[in-house]
Model the fold of this input.
Amino acid sequence: MKKSLTYLVVNLLLLMIATGAGAQSWPEAGQDAKSGSIWWWMGSAVDRENLRYNLREYSSRGIGSLLIVPIYGVRGNEANNIEFLSPKWMETLRFVEEEGERYANILLDYWFKRSFGSESGKRLMILTLREILPEADISDITYGNKEHPNPFPDSHGVIFDIECTSGDGSRFIVEVQLARQAWFMERALFYSSFAIQEQVLQGSGSYGFMPVYFIALMDFSLHSGDDGRFVYRYNLLDVKTGELMTDRISYTFLELPKVRSITEGSSNLEKLCYALHNMTVLKNRPPEMASEIFELLFSSAEIAKFAPEEKIKYEYDMTTERDIRNQIAYSREEGLAEGLEKGRAEGLEKGLEKGREEGRVEGKAEGKAEGKAEERRHIIKKLKEKGFSDEEVASILE
Done:
């Protein structure tokens, strides 16, 4: 019986593979999904060269985290021991931290603006815009005011991540979005309207405004499908003929996680998306990224080059980012559980009146809706408890 069951399981697996049922596209494992290991420091008799070697070996074997445990030393090697928590020991620990995460996550708000939106990052921004919009022919840019008040009374304005203008007057709005957001496409339309309004209101009254380019760098996938496409461009077109209504407004969305690997033959834009998405897990600049744009990109993200106060701010920002993500994930799970429980109860009650099948369907639908509402209330409550202002909460939940 056991032998027959084994054959049955094997045959079913082979059938799934043959029919494609088992050939699903698994998401790429992040650093927090990899295995961890204990790293014994015997007498803490360690040195930088061997620490760097061990870190690279751990990483190459798929280890994603290490727990450092200082223990007793080796007899006869006492001269090389480093006293636990001494200044030298703390300096060695900081070296390991910097080597373990050599590059910062520059998709975070402040750090993206530091790399791309400052005068020191202007060259990197120009090269990036050239890769995304080669048709724009950009030779120089001027950074603009990111805050845009609404010209209509009692209406809120917007704050762009980066806005800049090229020599011919074309405007570029660059936004980074780390997590999926409802109405993100509509938000892009709303944001771009400010760049158009300001040109018209500040001009001679003519509607002949200069081109406006909206660019979104998204650390998530908005479009379904796995056809290798990661760039999505939109213009205003005639539905039937495809004729452009105007070439003065365009939208470009880059879905960074869809670039899962690169080769020497990959385009610079593919390499750029890969680098931005994987920056925190890269230990060195890949040999395929030898051009100027990547030299500037990796240099701006190197934590060792941060000023002491910047290192403190980065650690704080990363902690805040992890806390927010964990709170949202926990609240979503908790809200969904409450919603499903309520949905089952309502589904049972309606099932007694109108039939079990109908009640189950309606109960689940209402339960999911209630679960989402409860999830949102829970997230707001948790963020308020953490000290976030109403404006910050509204921005997170947009």
Q: What stands out?
A: The chain has three domains: 29-100, 109-305, 310-396.
